[in-house]
Request: fold
Amino acid sequence: MVIMKDINQNEIKTMFNFCKNNNIVLQLIELIESENCDDDKFSEDYHYNLDSIEKELSEKQFETYVSIVYVFVCELSRI
Reply:
């Protein structure tokens, strides 16, 4: 699940519960900025920091249900 600010960050807990109840690992993908990227606006508009989510899940010992991946915004434009 690619997390994008003001688009779907409010769906994380719902997706987490769905995955947990169905014994599925939820992969959260955070878009991160790169100095080599020309499109800073995209990152500014859509970056959602997952640190608080990661901390919350860790405190509740739910790490086995979640994988967090960091993807540079420029890598998406090459796909």
